[in-house]
Amino acid sequence: MLPIGLQLYTVRNEMEQDFEGTLKKVAEMGYEGVEFAGLFGKSAGEVKALLEKYGLTPVSAHVPFADMKADIDSVIATYKEIGCPYIAVPYLDEEYRPGKPAFAETLAEIARIGKICRENGLTLLYHNHDFEFVKLDGKYGLDVMYDTVPAEDLQTELDVCWVNVGGEDPAPYVLKYSGRAPVVHLKDFVMKGREKPKKLYELIGIETEGEEAGEEDFSFKPVGYGVQDMPAIVAAAEKAGAKWLIVEQDRPDTGNTELSAAEKSVRYLQSLA
């Protein structure tokens, strides 16, 4: 089994209330590494010391695209000090997405940022949602991105929930990027039918227009508790040359807290070993 890390966005409210205590609990659950989504006011030095204290490996960090564009040198300095080998573009605002006028600008910026990361010993990743699975001249926007930006400057961080919601079988899609998939996001879910809820992204804290999605329409689940074929996905990640599996659950489902959901995920994955 590949090493398992936790995207700390999963436990963001716990992190906000008790940064050190939550890291301790994450380590005690059996997670070997963490991926950041903000540092909750802590300095890079403080974070590095706490990770060492609890034996957690800093894997990667989700950093807003706007922050990378504005000051990539500062971003690199922070996460290099912590010890992360990867930083990831976590999300694109609508204007920058495939099929929008600024997508060409997005590709150019990602290539620029990725080159700077590489020159500083870090690797840039791109974390997808489902909106990248729009077709541009018969090719998915996500594939256009990876075909346009050289692999040396951009690696994949395939989120298998959003790959599935986007219409693709996650395991073969991970295999498609063999050698370019160092970090794979494991995320499980249930969805009513194949029709995506109108306000799906409100479930991850992003306001959109349309009818609100309820848990009966779409719900994130602990890994192994939803519709995903996780054994096949894990096997594909291993075959593709992944170095880390990262668990993420954007919000806890009914009956779970942030921490209990994270623990169920790692327990399930440990049972596959």
What is the topological layout?
Elements: E1 4-7, H1 12-17, H2 19-29, E2 33-36, H3 44-54, E3 57-62, H4 65-82, E4 86-89, H5 103-119, E5 123-127, E6 135-136, E7 139-140, H6 141-148, E8 155-157, H7 160-165, H8 170-176, E9 183-186, E10 188-191, E11 218-221, H9 230-239, E12 244-247, H10 258-272
Parallel strand pairs: 1-2, 1-12, 2-3, 3-4, 4-5, 5-8, 9-12
Antiparallel strand pairs: 6-7, 10-11
Helix pairs in contact: 3-4, 4-5, 8-9
Structure description:
The protein is an alpha/beta fold. It has a single domain, classed as Alpha-Beta Barrel (TIM Barrel), CATH 3.20.20. It is built from ten helices and twelve strands. The protein has an eight-stranded parallel β-sheet with strand order 8-5-4-3-2-1-12-9. Strands 6-7 form a two-stranded antiparallel ribbon. It has a two-stranded antiparallel ribbon with strand order 10-11. Strand 3 (57-62), helix 4 (65-82) and strand 4 form a beta-alpha-beta unit. The relative contact order is 0.15.
Instruction: State the major sheet.
Output: 8 strands, parallel
Instruction: Examine the coordinates and then state which fold CATH places here, giving the name of the CATH topology.
Output: TIM Barrel
Structural class: alpha/beta
* Proportion of residues in extended strands: 15-25%
Supply the CATH architecture: Alpha-Beta Barrel
Compute the CA-based radius of gyration. Answer: 18 Å
Order of secondary-structure elements: EHHEHEHEHEEEHEHHEEEHEH
